[in-house]
Design goal:
The complex is a heterodimer of chains A (106) and B (455). Chain A is an alpha+beta fold. Chain A contains three helices and six strands. Helices cover 18% and strands 34% of the residues of chain A. In chain A, strands 2-3-5-4 form a four-stranded antiparallel beta sheet. A two-stranded antiparallel sheet of chain A has the order 1-6. Chain A is elongated and about 45 Å long. Chain B starts with a strand and ends with a strand. In chain B, the strands form three sheets. In chain B, strands 11-12-8-7-1-2-3-6-4-19 form a ten-stranded mixed beta sheet, sandwiched between helices. Chain B is an alpha+beta fold. The chains are: A alpha+beta (106), B alpha+beta (455). At the A-B interface, β2, β3, β4, β5 and α3 of A face α9, β14, β15, α11 and β16 of B.
């Protein structure tokens, strides 16, 4: 096994709903989807976003799209209009998740 | 088959896209999304100043520029541009149409009844609490600060306006998905309980509601090679009566329609994918089957859904204090250290002034501004520059106002090699916050009207 960034095997898009950010993570090749399911757990995503996500992380599976959807609660400083962040809607959190390292067959 | 095009992903999107959608190839319907969460409270203030205002005037200007082609090509236009004054928006459209010689040739529909600002106390008295969906709090805690209150209607009132012969339809608060689903219901005669087809049309609407974000815009896969983003084509759904559809764009336009790019849009603003709740149905995103069906064509099939819920969603906006953010740009060497020092100094000055804030937030742009220092890693002392951005939030307007005057002095009395304060003091903003709630569908009715342009 070797470690790679998610960026190497997946792509993503993020959006907002109130103070919750959603990050959709998509396997670039469908055959890599099981790697995402096994390793990109809600717990790991919560750790990864420790500085950003103050609430819980929920994960949903979309095997038909080879995708996982994460809800990062309390991640936007109160949400769109309240937020003092440069990225009040978490538009760049998709890329933030792609920084995570996972193990893939060598 | 009917072609439904989206020409506007939000208020502020390309002014040319809707006209290009009409002119660059065949479409039957043009749908336009103008209303963001914040829009309603802005429009409420505009109407308070002038009773003829309070809608997305960009839409009227678009109609003014494009009406000749819209009429010649018999395109039907549906836009949630009515804001909190959809009748005034209709009157402005009728005025434009009359001036352009379309009297007797055009009917304009309105979907209203979504604005419940004046009925809030009545609802509360009837036991409809409008509690905050997220926190469970009672509306009474913010009642006096409410600035707007609108119900999200879905496709059915738009269908009623289409049945009435309207060629241009203006709605108040209406779901982005509903304005694209409505033409399918109208043309194909889908039933109110045909949940799979209604869900398919809803997912078609979701796919195109953000404009070019499904045709190569904001796309991470191979973004460097996506052709001609300057001339990006906006999306078109080719919908079939059986609920399958193909997402594409006009020929000879820029961008790219691929399965990978469409997947990115599908997961955008997604909650629980099994339960995408709209006023029309509950769509299940885990049933979507996608396939590349030719260049710039993605076919959707297999979509399933479930019955709608007994509630409409309500979006209430209310005043919730003040905020301001300011920036200072620090150059190499040790740009990050300088910005950090300036942040400490500024915070100390705010403390010594005795100012109270709900929050003071600092970002070091160029050194983790987007993702934070934990993910971005320790900044190099050789960074060419770092932009210090400090924001404050408070219920106390005077405190925020005083903060806006404390940034610029650091140009002369803080760490060295600083610039970027040239645009003046930061702007104080009133915060408009959101209060999501639910209301029983039986508590109110949409108000649909169709008016012919008279001479």
């Amino acid at each position: 096994m070797k470690k790679v960034r998610l960026l190497e095997i997946a792509h993503a898009r993020s959006g907002d709903k109130g103070d919750t950010s959603n990050v959709g993570l998509i396997a670039t090749r469908p055959e890599d989807y099981p790697l995402l399911v096994a390793q990109v757990t809600a717990e790991r995503v919560k750790q990864h976003f420790a500085e950003i996500c103050l609430g819980k992380v929920e994960r949903f599976e979309l095997p038909n799209l080879g995708a996982l959807n994460f809800l990062l609660h309390e991640s936007l400083d109160g949400g769109g209009t309240m937020s003092l962040r440069s990225d009040p809607q978490g538009k760049t959190y998709s890329a933030a998740l792609l920084r995570m390292e996972i193990e893939v067959p060598a | 088959m009917i072609r439904i095009a989206n020409g506007q992903g939000f208020w502020g999107d390309s002014l040319e896209a809707p006209l290009e959608q009409v002119r660059r190839g065949p479409i039957d319907y043009l749908t336009l999304d103008y209303l963001a969460e914040i829009t309603m409270s802005i429009l409420q203030k505009q109407r308070a100043r002038d009773p003829r205002m309070g809608f997305a005037y960009d839409f009227v200007q678009m109609i003014s520029r494009g009406l000749g082609d819209i009429m010649a090509r018999k395109v039907k236009v549906i836009a949630n541009a009515g804001g909190i004054n959809p009748n005034a928006c209709r009157d402005a459209i009728i005025d434009v149409a009359r001036k352009q010689g379309f009297a007797g040739k055009l009917k304009v529909g309105v979907v209203a009844g979504d604005d419940i600002m004046d009925r809030l106390d009545d609802f509360i008295a009837r036991g409809i609490a409008l509690k905050n969906m997220d926190t469970g709090e009672e509306l009474s805690t913010i009642r006096s600060r409410v600035q707007s209150a609108n119900v999200y209607f879905g496709a059915w009132p738009v269908v009623e306006a289409l049945h009435g012969g309207a060629q241009i339809i203006v709605t108040g608060r209406c779901t982005d998905t509903g304005i694209s689903l409505a033409p399918m219901i109208h043309e194909f005669g889908w039933a109110r309980d045909d949940w799979d087809k209604l869900s398919a049309g809803t997912i078609a609407g979701h796919s195109i509601e953000c404009g070019a974000q499904c045709t190569g815009g904001n796309c991470q896969v191979d973004w460097q090679t996506i052709p001609d983003l300057a001339g990006i084509g906006y999306p078109i759904v080719e919908a079939e009566p059986d609920g399958t559809f193909t997402l594409t764009k006009h020929e000879h336009t820029g961008g790219r329609v691929t399965v990978a790019g469409v997947k990115e849009q599908l997961v955008y603003e997604m909650g629980d994918p099994h339960e995408y709740i709209t006023p029309d149905c509950v769509a299940d995103f885990t049933t979507i089957h996608l396939e590349q069906a030719g260049e710039n064509r993605v076919r959707f099939s297999g979509i399933k859904g479930r019955p709608d819920t007994p509630f409409y969603k309500v979006s209430i906006s209310y005043a919730n204090g003040f905020k301001a953010s300011g920036v200072l740009l620090y150059s190499w060497p040790n740009a990050f250290d300088k910005a950090q020092a300036a942040d400490r100094i500024l915070r100390e000055r705010l403390d010594r002034l005795g100012l109270k804030f709900d929050k003071v937030a600092t970002e070091f742009i160029g050194a983790g501004g987007c993702h934070g220092l934990q993910l971005a890693g320790p900044p190099s002392p050789d960074l060419p520059e770092v932009l210090l951005r400090i924001g404050v939030r408070s219920q106390d307007k005077a405190a925020v106002e005083r903060f806006t005057k404390e940034i610029a002095p650091l140009a002369l009395n803080g760490p060295p090699t600083v610039t970027g304060f040239g645009s003046g003091r930061p702007r104080l903003e009133e915060i408009v916050a959101y209060w999501p709630a639910l209301i029983p569908k039986t508590a109110l009715q949409p108000v649909v009207s169709v008016t012919e342009v008279s001479a």
